[in-house]
Amino acid sequence: MKPILTLIVAGVLTAGNVWAQEQPKTHVFKLEDCLNYAYEHQNALLNAKLDEEIAKSKVKETIGIGLPQIEGSANFQHFIDIPTTYIPDFISPAVYGVLEKEGVKDGSGSAITMPNDLSQTFPAKFGTKNTFTASLTISQLLFDGTYLMGLKAAGVYKELSTKNVKRTQIDTRIEVSKAYYNVIVYNAYQNTLASTIERLTETLKQTDALNKSGMAEKIDVDRLQVLLNNAETQKKNIDRLSEFNTNLLKFQMGMPITETLIVDQKLEDMALDAVLPDLAEVKVENRIEYSLLETQKRLLEYDLKRYKLAYVPSVGAFASFGQTGQNDAFYETFKKFFPTNIVGVNFTIPIWSSGQRQQRINQAKFNLRKTENDLVNLKNTLALDLRTNAITFQNNKDQVENQKKNMDLASEVVRVSKIKYNQGVGSSLEVTTAESDLRTAQNNYYTAIYDAILSYIELQKAMGNFN
């Protein structure tokens, strides 16, 4: 029994350790904590950074085109049958020429003379059964206009990828901020509903006691019960939506959904009195979208220059060092080698491409003009976006102030109606109506707050303050 008990205890302890290790992490974050976490874990941002690294590698690859290139090769061939070639009969004319000159006669005593037709050929085999060749080739680009433009374009391409990381970071900040403030607003609404339920529960108890003593009607109790039921149902819905909003925030941050996130900020800690800036001082050219398109335009300019330089000759140098071994016997092939060493310069001169080069230039020009048109339109679009968001923010800010006044007035109406009802000079309908109006005012207030926060974030983006 003792070994068995030891195994059981060890198993329980191991399971406890595993369970402790698998417990989800708990994070208590403010907005900046959420943003910093997102900058390190958000998938889109991580991929954008990888694209930046790819761009850096692409630049190095482009630089490498203009650096020395070294290649080695080795080739072994065994001819099962050595190729046969027909060659002209160059022996017979020489032989007949000697015979004629020496006056040699044939068997019949006649002088030997050269035949009129000696155009015959005969088969011959050249080479050995085995051939082994090893070579080392070195090449160096000396001048190529398209390569020089490619180098400049590669640097701009790297810059474009860096700006794309910045744009993705801005988008991540905006989405995380929106989700973060959504959680705060819903948490505040949860607390308000909890207070409402507590107040309605107390009022219901008092009214029920009055009903039992004959000082209130049953309908008064029922009306309050309906209000309480609706408030509790709404509270459950808000609780579920609050959980959903927290999960959405975790998703925007790149945090595992299984981990626990607690937002360490309350609605009353937020400053909602931002002042509308002077739009005349805002330059939409500072927006990352405009900067990206400008960089794209520079790329197209280099592209156009590259196609124009395709008319310019290119120059390259090369050197090749090789050794060749030949023999009919396999092992003898590798005993003696014959060198083949070459150095040279090559010129590539574009002469005629049937108009292809010119059409590439035309296409590059048209693409560049399109981008220039897009820049003008984007500037106008961003200016419109700035003014639209400024108006929306101001309207939402005014709406928050208005809904706050309405909520305060509704709270005062509830307080007065309860006093009047308790003193017997007011009706239960007046109390329930006041409670219902207060709930509506609370809904409108929190909706207005969230809309104001979202419009403020969009305004900051439109002003380029997130760059």
Automatic annotation (TrEMBL):
Gene3D superfamilies: Outer membrane efflux proteins (OEP). InterPro entries: OMP_efflux (IPR003423), TolC-like (IPR051906). This is Outer membrane protein. The keyword Signal applies. It comes from the Bacteria. Keywords: Cell outer membrane, Membrane, Signal, Transmembrane, Transmembrane beta strand, Transport. GO terms for cellular component: cell outer membrane; efflux pump complex. Its main location: membrane. Belongs to the outer membrane factor (OMF) (TC 1.B.17) family. GO terms for molecular function: efflux transmembrane transporter activity; porin activity. It is found in: Cell outer membrane. Residues 1-20 form the signal peptide. It comes from Solitalea canadensis (strain ATCC 29591 / DSM 3403 / JCM 21819 / LMG 8368 / NBRC 15130 / NCIMB 12057 / USAM 9D) (Flexibacter canadensis).
